[in-house]
UniProtKB/TrEMBL annotation:
The keyword Transferase applies. It comes from Kitasatospora viridis. This is Putative O-methyltransferase YrrM. The keyword Methyltransferase applies. GO terms for biological process: DIM/DIP cell wall layer assembly; methylation. SUPFAM superfamilies: S-adenosyl-L-methionine-dependent methyltransferases. Keywords: Methyltransferase, Transferase. One of its GO terms (molecular function) is methyltransferase activity.
Amino acid sequence: MTQTQPGPAAAPAPTPEVLAAFEAADGFMPVDEGLALYAAAVEAAQRTGLPVLEIGTYCGRSAILLADAARRTGTVALTVDHHRGSEEQQPGWEYHDPTLVDPEVGLMDTLPRFRRTLHEAGLEQHVIALVGRSPQVAAVWGGKLALVFIDGGHTDEHAGGDYQGWAPHLAEDGLLVVHDVFPDPADGGQAPYRVYLRALAEGFEEVSVTGSLRVLRRAARAAG
Ligand SMILES: C[S@@+](CC[C@H](N)C(=O)[O-])C[C@H]1O[C@@H](n2cnc3c(N)ncnc32)[C@H](O)[C@@H]1O
């Protein structure tokens, strides 16, 4: 009798309903990168039993996937944003969406759209929104994390601050995910790439590359 060897386990993927909600949500992440983020979140949360955290909620597109990964693994997704938008989302800039401006305050406010998006996806109870500036939240945060996903401000000040503030909260074997890593300046801004290089220099190793999404893990310490 021939025995079939089990092949490599398929990467965990969201249900078609969750994927459809992700695709319908406002935001910037392509599907292939979303699937890589989802697989990393499920793997890290399952292995550690700890929450996953994102910096850069915007309207909840990537948060849908993190919330579903948290639901699936019995943890919770945390998502940090001041909800006033990044530099490139302000009026007159490339990524500005005028429907996200609070007309009374005259400033961007992505929190209502985020809340509606997560509610409509049926994932509200699996996500905790932390409304504030990333370095301030990181400074008072006390717990360990399975995964930190950096997708906040794309200047050196902001992306570097996200890494500096949140990487110390990662569990020993947790995963660091960085979005918009473009080694070629012709493809995009360099701050996330510099964060990625800094992480490699400080003991992380690459686990996977999908588009501009890099998944990293702290390199195992040498025995002895
Ligand atoms: C590129 S968007 C996030 C996109 C989202 N992850 C998605 O996939 O749809 C960046 C977000 O980071 C937020 N942000 C920028 N700098 C921040 C900071 N220092 N603290 C908190 N949020 C910040 C902006 O308000 C914006 O909503």
